[in-house]
Amino acid sequence: MLPITGSADTELPCVTIFATDGELPVIGQQDIFAANFDVSVARTEAEARAIVIQQRPDLLLIASETRNDDLPGIIARLREVSRTRYLPVVVLGDEQAWLSSALIFDGHIDEVISSQCRTDIGLAAIRALLRRVRPEALTGRLAFADLTINELERRVEWARTLIHLSPTEYRFLAGLVDEPSHMLTRAHISRRVWGHASDASRQIDQVVKGLRLLLRPLQAEHLIETVRGVGYRLCATPEAQPST
């Protein structure tokens, strides 16, 4: 996927929602706006075409619960002008139906998000796609609960309190926040933090221990939760205390 010219009227990443049946999806306009995106909504192909050409969004989110055989033609028409030729397209709908479709293999669709997923996971998947195909569209900000990470400045805060992390601790925590499911296996952590898939269990345990010590004075030790036999995930509330 090649980059296209960014949004003309805003510095925020711009997302256009095209509701093919006229109804806004579960991950709707207010959710995406609250996640620091500029949002526009279209309920007809004509509206979508006008918005795409005039506003040049960074991503098109098509809400289509069931497979629509007309969708390839719709996407092709929305991409027919040079400025929108490489517009990333995400479909929000029945994940199993769409994943079995040839549309995702022939380049019409870049990503499929289940309409049954939690809003935060869906938004994280959208950010992950933008980071992959349109990195210049993002502001470099990651967030989970009261945790914010400024990737451009490598600045980490919990409830606006600055946390000083080592490079290894930063890569570990940013990896968890950036992952759509907010959960990483130990093998994934090894690859992401140290660049290899070999067993780094002892190093991982030390990183987690250090992060929890830093988070404890902020009453945020619950943030990193152990998933026994798997790895670690982020936890927004202290209800499930992490295991050590």
Automatic annotation (TrEMBL):
SUPFAM superfamilies: C-terminal effector domain of the bipartite response regulators, CheY-like. GO terms for biological process: regulation of DNA-templated transcription. GO terms for molecular function: phosphorelay response regulator activity; transcription cis-regulatory region binding. Transmembrane segments: none annotated. PROSITE patterns: OMPR_PHOB. It holds the Pfam family Trans_reg_C. Residues 139-236 bind DNA. Keywords: DNA-binding, Phosphoprotein, Transcription, Transcription regulation, Two-component regulatory system. GO terms for cellular component: cytosol; protein-DNA complex. Residues 139-236 form the OmpR/PhoB-type domain. It comes from the Bacteria. PANTHER family: REGULATOR OF RPOS, TWO-COMPONENT RESPONSE REGULATOR ORR33. This is OmpR/PhoB-type domain-containing protein.
